[in-house]
Design a protein that fits this description.
The complex is a heterodimer of chains A (309) and B (422). With 309 residues, chain A is mainly α. Chain A folds into 2 domains: 44 residues, no CATH class; 257 residues, no CATH class. Chain A is built from 15 helices and 1 strand, in the order αβαααααααααααααα. In chain A, α4 packs across α9, α5 runs antiparallel to α8 and α5 runs antiparallel to α11. The N terminus of chain A is likely disordered. Chain B folds into 2 domains: 209 residues, 3-Layer(aba) Sandwich (Rossmann fold), CATH 3.40.50.300; 132 residues, Distorted Sandwich (Coagulation Factor XIII, Chain A, domain 1). Chain B is globular and about 85 Å long. About 1% of the residues of chain B have low confidence. The two termini of chain B are 54 Å apart. In chain B, the strands form 4 sheets. Chain B has a 6-stranded mixed beta sheet, sandwiched between helices. A 5-stranded mixed beta sheet of chain B has the order 12-18-17-14-15. A 4-stranded antiparallel beta sheet of chain B has the order 10-11-13-16, with no helix packed on it. With 422 residues, chain B is of the alpha/beta class. The chains are: A mainly alpha (309), B alpha/beta (422). Chains A and B meet through α1, β1, α3, α7 and α15 of A and α1, α2, α3, β4 and β5 of B. β1 of chain A pairs antiparallel with β4 of chain B, so a sheet runs across the interface.
Chain lengths: 309, 422
């Protein structure tokens, strides 16, 4: 018997599948004995299936392939291609600078206003793309969901990874402004910058898990997303410095995790005022609740995706 | 041989209401919930459908198992549960070994991506590891025969090229247990032949294959064993030829035997047909005949008085109503005016003549009234039966398991000799 070393490998399922003991059958040849030790058990879904991290790890090749596909497909047959990842933040920031900086004179917290805005626009742009892609991820991969097994969690997960590339491509815009306005990071806190982006990824993933699962059953999500994304920049302090507004409103905005992301990120990369850590903790806690809740809803709904989508 | 798949009491329930709600909006659901809370609407019992009920079977390593059944019988649901696309409502399955599933060819192909990119994408979706695709890439491309277009987006491919490339990837999956849906339903005869060939290869190399199909010839030829599903449960399990024969016997409706009481028998005052039947043969269930065996059609008719020279005639049609042939008894005994009495006439259709599928027989008692054939008694679509090829390789289709078109399927005499000019 010649066998390729690996194929659709052992699949284990959230609590519905488990590794079991090898076959106690001496008649197996050595080769099949090694693989026959992989036992897939299919059972009715439990009420709150837990996440199987081992399985996710096992499917990492597929995750990267899906991410790669989305990145490649994204700019195919566009004239400007990946340049869009630069143009979108530049254009958005220009409008903010002119309208909010010149006409409305929003508070800048002592940082050159264009730098302040771009440092807010980049994470917000990431969040907008990540939320849109992840909440549509199950629907836009309908064909996969109904035809082949893999942990469905991969879809919203991959969708929040894809726009990280756009964020990285947009970073030179910020660097140019930092050089022009001389707004360099204040010190070692710059090494914390990736952590604030990680908080944005976590927030987008939590919301994306929740909304993608709801979207399978209620297509209303498609209409909700643009509304959320329209108000998010204003509620997260993208065109202004949050620490310059009235304290009680700061605490209200603190419930938005993206406020924490942006004020932390600005502190790390622009030497902006240090975030009020109490407020930061509130935002992080909300993100954590969103993530756990989103994951729970997603896992709960997962057994029915193929039936209801 | 060790058991690689054990399914016990497998059941899957769908609720119809749930499907309807899936197309509703959040507002409707909220409104419904509101009415329920205020007591204005009781939670109506959504209609439940059991797509699978108490399905229990085992599969041994190296077996090629065919699952057959009518549309909606539950075979696709069973496959979806086995491939873990959907979850069972009850029961348990244990699968030992690496599983590969193929519910369609080209799952996840993206039109904007090139052939090369799609090989990697589709391979990953079917469960191949990146390095494994790297290793087999050249083989896959060569097998597909689309080398020249491998860097062209697949949206510019013809549908034939698309399917060939997709199949090439699928054919290089090497799971220990392969679950296949009617992949064979797409593509031309050549493609189907390659699919079947590949599956037979897998089967003969000790891999276990479960194959869900409508294509009874393919099941008969390829599988070692067949399971028939009906109404979500297993109703037949055994040798493919037997299971298929039983299945055909259950599904064909008009029956292979009909008879009429004297007073309502079809016909005029000269002749009446009393009964017509397919004479059962060998170990086949009633209404099913082996394609290789002669088929006997028996017509019983009564001649009331001596009038004209009468003779029996039959007409055989295929399931689409195309006439395979007309035949009548031209024996000398029917040249004189027929004496009164009851006659039992049997027409023998040679073996290896009709094609597989349903056949319909019409019978008539005629006399010649030149230029017309006068019908004294006639029964249209009198009986039907199923012609089955058990796939043992000695019928006109030989070792080929794909689609075999034609109303007739004669096994001809073939001669071959060297070309003298050479």
């Amino acid at each position: 018997m010649s066998r390729g070393p690996s194929l659709l490998d052992e699949r284990s399922n959230d609590g519905t599948a488990a590794e079991a003991a090898p076959l106690a059958d001496g008649s197996l040849d050595t080769e099949s004995e090694a693989s026959a030790s992989r036992v897939t058990v299919i059972q009715p879904a439990t009420r709150w299936p837990k996440l199987d991290l081992g399985e996710l790890w096992h499917y990492r090749d597929l995750l990267w392939t899906l991410v790669w596909r989305d990145i490649v497909v994204r700019y195919k047959q566009t004239f400007l291609g990946i340049a869009w990842a630069l143009l979108v933040p530049i254009f958005t920031a220009t409008v903010y600078v002119v309208i909010f900086g010149k006409f409305a004179d929003f508070p800048d917290g002592g940082v050159a206003y264009p730098s302040l805005v771009v440092a807010g626009v980049l994470p917000m742009q990431y969040f907008a793309s990540a939320l849109t892609l992840s909440s549509m991820s199950l629907l836009s991969n309908l064909q996969l969901v109904t035809k082949v097994y893999f942990p469905r969690t991969l879809l919203p997960l991959g969708a929040v990874v894809v726009p990280i590339l756009d964020l990285l491509i947009g970073l030179p815009v910020l660097l140019v402004l930092m050089w022009y306005y001389d707004t360099w990071p204040g010190g070692v806190e710059v090494v914390l910058a990736p952590l604030f982006i990680a908080l944005a990824v976590g927030t987008a993933l939590g919301a994306g898990l929740l909304l993608s699962a709801v979207n399978v059953r209620f297509r209303d999500v498609r209409y909700m997303i643009p509304v959320i994304l329209q108000v998010m920049p204003l509620l997260s302090g993208v065109p202004y410095d949050v620490s310059s507004i009235e304290t009680k409103w700061q605490w209200v905005l603190a419930f938005n995790p993206m406020t924490a992301v942006i004020s932390g990120w600005r502190w790390a990369v622009l030497d902006a005022p240090e975030p009020v850590w109490g407020q930061f903790a509130v935002g992080t806690a909300v993100a954590a609740v969103l993530f756990v809740g989103g994951l729970a809803v997603f896992r709960r709904a997962e057994p029915r995706f193929a039936d209801t989508i | 041989m060790p058991t690689v798949i054990t399914a016990e009491g497998l059941a899957k329930q769908y609720s119809l209401g749930e499907h309807q709600a899936a197309y509703g909006t959040l507002r409707e659901s909220l409104a419904r919930a509101g009415r329920r809370v205020t007591g204005r609407e009781h939670r109506h019992k959504a209609e439940q459908i059991w797509a699978l009920r108490d399905v229990t079977f085992e599969v041994q390593q190296g077996e090629v198992l065919g699952i057959i059944g009518r549309n909606g019988a539950g075979k696709s649901t069973l496959l979806k549960v086995l491939t873990r696309i959907t979850w069972p409502t009850a029961g348990r399955v244990e699968i030992r070994g690496r599983v590969g599933s193929l519910l369609e060819v080209g799952t996840g192909f993206h039109p904007e991506l090139t052939g090369r990119e799609n090989v990697y994408l589709n391979g990953a979706i079917l469960g191949m590891k990146r390095r494994e695709i790297d290793r087999r890439y050249d083989e896959i491309v060569e097998f597909s025969g689309v080398e020249r277009f491998i860097d062209t987006p697949v949206k510019r491919y013809s549908s034939g090229m698309y399917v060939r490339l997709a199949f090439a990837v699928a054919a290089h999956l090497e799971p220990e247990i392969l679950l296949v849906d009617e992949v064979l339903a797409v593509g031309d005869a050549e493609f189907q032949r390659r699919c079947l060939g590949r599956m037979e290869e897998l089967g003969s190399s000790g891999r276990t294959v479960i194959f869900v199909s409508h294509q009874l010839p393919a099941v008969a030829q390829m599988c070692d064993r067949a399971i028939q599903i009906n109404g979500g449960t297993v109703v037949g399990d055994g040798r493919p030829a037997e299971v298929i024969a039983n299945y055909l016997h259950q599904t064909h409706s008009s029956g292979s035997e009909r008879s009429w009481p004297e007073d309502s028998a079809p016909g005029n005052d000269l002749a009446k047909i009393l009964s017509i039947r397919l004479v059962p043969h060998g170990d086949m269930p009633p209404g099913v005949v082996d394609v290789r065996h002669p088929i006997a059609i028996e017509t019983v008719f009564r001649v009331a008085h001596e009038g004209k020279p009468l003779f029996p005639k039959i007409k055989v049609l295929d399931q689409e109503g195309a006439i395979a042939f007309n035949a009548m008894d031209t024996d000398d005994r029917w040249l004189q005016p027929t004496p009164p009495g009851v006659y039992v006439s049997t027409a023998w259709i040679p073996g290896n003549m009709l094609n597989e599928g349903s056949a319909i027989v019409e019978a008539a008692i005629c006399s010649i009234d030149f230029p017309k054939l006068e019908h004294h008694a006639a029964v249209y679509e009198a009986i039907s039966f199923e012609v089955l090829d058990p796939g043992e390789g000695d019928s006109a289709r030989g070792a080929f398991a794909g689609q075999w078109r034609g109303v007739l399927r004669p096994k001809l005499e073939w001669t071959v000799e060297p070309d003298r000019r050479d």
